[in-house]
């Protein structure tokens, strides 16, 4: 599906084809920047505040000083939807790099960051949300700062491609057997009525949907334990599921060719999906 015609560049709006960057751009050459992917339901953002907060945490972590405030970014992102008359389900991709400058590893001086954002349509993937997906497990070979939503996604890209080549939807990553997250989503295991997931430290991206999953679990009095779980635990799991802005809460019914539980999405995953739909869709419809 194509990009909507009006995009945002710095704090201005322009036609999608008029944005161009020089070869010597730090996002292009070094992956020296960060990004966000924000879900849209029926023309309204879901978890916008959480995404903008994370954007600024990532910027601070890599020492990019964006002059634009959180409030201004929020206002601009809302305008982006209005200017495109966006009323459907979709997503916004927003990227900030350290700017355009002659190639040199050292930060350039007095160069403004490059910021752009565009909107795309994205229907809910009801097939995978309803029926569940298969995964593979892989070693997590990324760096130590996975809480930063960095443009450097090569290990994630390679892991996801491997999953695809094995006919799977996602790659579950692990460090020395301890599961961290997936290549582009967070992952959870359910055992004896409790939800287990990796603690929100530097080894994973602190997913905006993950924050919601925790809240839903607490509201429903389902223990949410940030104790992590191992690759071996997966074979004994009652349920397994993943979450992200684009995948929502997706059941995992098979991993490394082994069936999870009874091979069908489990009851706790279903309860969380219901809570998600209420939170994301019904609430938004009421606005
Ligand atoms: N990815 N972990 C990783 C490594 C991710 O890339 C993502 C999101 C998540 C889930 O975060 P959130 O719940 O805030 O979407 C976890 C986005 C969707 C992407 O890169 O396209």
Topology:
Layout: E1 6-9, E2 12-15, H1 26-30, E3 33-41, E4 44-45, H2 48-61, H3 70-83, E5 90-97, E6 114-121, H4 126-131, E7 133-139, H5 154-165, E8 170-175, E9 178-182, E10 186-191, E11 194-197, H6 208-219, E12 224-225, H7 231-234, E13 239-244, E14 248-255, E15 258-259, H8 267-286
Parallel strand pairs: 7-8, 7-14, 11-12
Antiparallel strand pairs: 1-2, 1-6, 3-4, 3-5, 5-6, 8-9, 10-11, 10-13, 13-14, 14-15
N-(5'-phosphopyridoxyl)-D-alanine (PDD) is lined by residues 37, 156, 181, 184-186, 205, 207-210, 243-246.
Written account of the structure:
By secondary structure, this protein is an alpha+beta fold. The strands form two sheets. Strands 7, 8, 9, 10, 11, 12, 13, 14 and 15 form a nine-stranded mixed β-sheet that branches. It contains eight helices and 15 strands. The chain is globular. The longest helix has 20 residues. The relative contact order is 0.14. It folds into two domains: 116 residues, 2-Layer Sandwich (D-amino Acid Aminotransferase, Chain A, domain 1); 155 residues, Alpha-Beta Barrel (D-amino Acid Aminotransferase, Chain A, domain 2). The model has no long low-confidence stretch (mean pLDDT 96). The site of N-(5'-phosphopyridoxyl)-D-alanine (PDD) has 15 residues, from helix 6 and strand 13. N-(5'-phosphopyridoxyl)-D-alanine binds next to helix 6 and strand 13.
